[in-house]
Design brief:
By secondary structure, this protein is an alpha/beta fold. The protein has one domain: Vaccinia Virus protein VP39 (Rossmann fold). The protein contains six helices and ten strands; from the N terminus they run H-H-E-H-E-H-E-E-H-E-E-E-E-H-E-E. The strands form two sheets. Strands 3-2-1-4-5-10-9 form a seven-stranded mixed beta sheet. Strands 6-7-8 form a three-stranded antiparallel beta sheet, with no helix packed on it. It starts with 25 loop residues before the first helix and ends in a 9-residue tail after the last strand. The structure holds S-adenosylmethionine. S-adenosylmethionine binds next to helix 1.
């Protein structure tokens, strides 16, 4: 089992909780980063993993009507949507979506601007969902509500797939802070010189299993050197308890 950096046994014991300063606005950060975003997919040490994951993703959504959350520049859309019946790729940033729209895409792909935290206005029903490198940016305290909101847009028995990073020293950006809720942060500099503190969590299999619990069926975890994937089937509609 892979325990994430956020889990109790994680490697962050030496990082101070630090002051509760607000982190960079994620939408603004990715707007500024849109043009250079795909450099992250050119890191030499990650190429073997990426090819394996692209192949792994193909066929997961065959014949499905898929809602993609935070599609960014569409790196995964191309692969995930290949055999889908219908694929709605959403993101809040026009800047990242413009890059995705400019790429050759499978015929099933449509785009829409949507806030991942406010999915109600989207038209249609879906029997699958995909989110690449989004889970890690959701504050731990928002995850239950976000999962409920996502599941509410899906048919019973829908399939959900999420992909994200494992923390790999020397390849991942260093973690610079952990807040009182257990969220971890990285300090990142963009090409325009701006510096951003970005919330980026590194959960492990146990964290997702504990959070999703009996709300989901057929939970499966796959990991590569630099990445992990989790998939599950949406189960009974039991919302997380509200604080
Ligand atoms: C790490 S990128 C992931 C992009 C793409 N899924 C990938 O894996 O390459 C995070 C994306 O989340 C988008 N984003 C940030 N806040 C959002 C929100 N509230 N709703 C929807 N998308 C959001 C950003 O515009 C960015 O494209």
């Amino acid at each position: 089992m892979n325990l994430g950096v956020n889990s109790a046994a994680g490697v962050l014991a030496s990082v101070d909780a630090g002051p509760a300063t607000p982190a960079t606005d994620l939408v603004d950060y990715y707007r500024r980063r849109a043009e250079s975003y795909e450099r992250i997919y050119h890191k030499p040490e990650r190429q073997a993993d990426l090819r394996a994951m692209e192949a792994w993703l193909r066929g997961r959504f065959a014949g499905r009507r898929v809602l993609e959350i935070a599609c960014g520049t569409g790196w995964w859309t191309v692969h995930g949507a290949r055999d889908a019946l219908d694929w709605l790729a959403t993101d809040l940033n026009e800047e990242t979506t413009a890059i995705a729209r400019s790429k050759p895409m499978p015929a099933s792909v449509r785009f829409a601007r949507a806030d991942a935290y406010a999915l109600e206005p989207l038209d249609g029903r879906f029997d699958a969902a995909f989110a690449g490198f989004w889970w890690s940016h959701v504050p731990l305290q928002r995850l239950p509500r976000w999962i409920d909101a996502l599941h509410a847009r899906l048919d019973a028995g829908a399939r959900v797939v999420v992909l994200d990073n494992r923390y790999v020293p020397g390849s991942s950006s260093a973690i610079t802070r952990r807040d009182a809720a257990g969220n971890t942060y990285q300090t990142r500099q963009l090409d325009d010189g701006s510096v951003h503190e970005v919330l980026k969590n590194f959960p492990g299999e146990a964290d997702l299993r504990a959070l999703l619990g009996t709300r989901v069926r057929e939970f499966a975890w796959t990991s590569w050197t630099h990445y992990w994937a989790a998939s599950w089937t949406v189960g009974a509609r039991t919302p997380f308890p509200r604080p």
